[in-house]
Amino acid sequence: MKWNRKYAGVLAGAVLVAVTVSSIGYRVIAANAEGNEQEKKTDVAQEESGESFMEEGTTQIKTENQFPTFSVGAVTMTVEEVYVESGTVVEEGDALLKITQESMEDAISYYEDAIEDAQDALETAQIALESGMLEAEYELQDASLSAETAQSSYNAAVSELTVLVDEKKEAYDNVVDEIELYQEALDNGIYYSQVGAEEKQAAVDAATTAATDAQTALVAAQSTYDAAQTAIAADMEKLKSQIAANVSYETLQALADQVATDYVNVQTATADLSQKQVDADTAQSTLEKANLTLENAGKEYDTLVQTANDKLDELYGQLESLQEAYEQAKRDAITAQAEIQKEYEEAVLAGAYAGTEYESTVAELAEKVETAQEVLEELLEGQEALLSLENGVICADRAGTVAAVIYEAEDVLQDGVALVSYYDMDTIYISVEVAQEQIALLTVKDAVDVSVSGSRGTITGEIASIATEKTSGGSISNVTYAVVIAIDNSDGSLSSGSSATVLFNYEDDITEGAE
To answer: With 501 labelled, which of 51, 192, 267, 278 sits at a CA distance of 20 to 30 A?
Structure first.
């Protein structure tokens, strides 16, 4: 009986619908109830009216997973019995599987110990926050008072020096300061640094290298993606032929595993290719911006240097007449002012740092309290979910049809692994390939007319997604893009594996464009 369940699991794995909407389009893998799998390829039937066209596809469904609502990684949670299998129809609350009594006892003990530790940690963090806030508040007030005193002392000293320095001293000071400022800027290349010429040149060099590297990476990612697509196509064909040949379970299992691995590789390569394209575009944009920034910096540098030289000529013309009156006042004031300035800045800096330190200390302690609270709440929620299990039985969290059962008796539950998956029958999906010259006529959420084999009348669906990358064709005449259609199936009238014809109408779009 266990072997039959595993064999059914292999076929169910092949039957499961894999719906992928990404930059490379939409792929559907399906097989019929007898385990014979094939990827249907239909000829495109396009109307010649110029106002609509038709494409053919196959109805498919997705699955949703149910995960444990309590931790299964802290202790060994062993399955004692499984009550459902693929195809079982369940109601919410129906038993799915049972955890051994020993596992339940270990898990309950784990939660009791972990919650006690978490409560102690939370209390410790709360006490640390209270005491830390008091200490930080005291240090802040002390530093603020020192800063206020320094401000008063600085203001009084500056006022006294201002009385001693007459208008000629102030005039001379201003001229000397300006001369030193402009001369230093010229001598030390401050204007060059000010406009960031070296950094901007380095940015251009770096952007050039990055653009080259990004393009190289894009080419490599494209190659990897093409190889992954080729591999999965070959393995799918092999799997089909082996199923048709009625080979052994072990051979089917190995081939199914390889197809799954190929699928993951395609997904990974797809994501990488998309990212590499974004990286290449970003790198090129960055290079163009860097070149423009460097050019503007050069112009700004020339302007700053010319302005500085003109200003120096003007200032040196004023300096000689002001120097005699300024010398005495400078000797009296420069030392005292420098000292009080230093004392003032040190006190203000200490006060400002104390405020930052206070906020940082309180924030850090509060974060520890919040983290401890979150840990405790998470443990309490997990404990509640565990204790709600009657005799260790995990029940269905919804009504539906079981698509796959992940575990068997004596298996150990794993973190992040679903218990079961359910068929999502509320929405039916159809993937079709649309020619490049028609894809621009379509928009996501557009309504379409669908005829499903075995169903009477026409059903209204809508476009769920349109691929941004082509899925077939090497020239404009045969390039196609994947378009996914969604149909409301809340009444459960449709099923997977039926052939369908999708009619795309775009008469209104053409009329609006003509207007």
So the answer is: 267
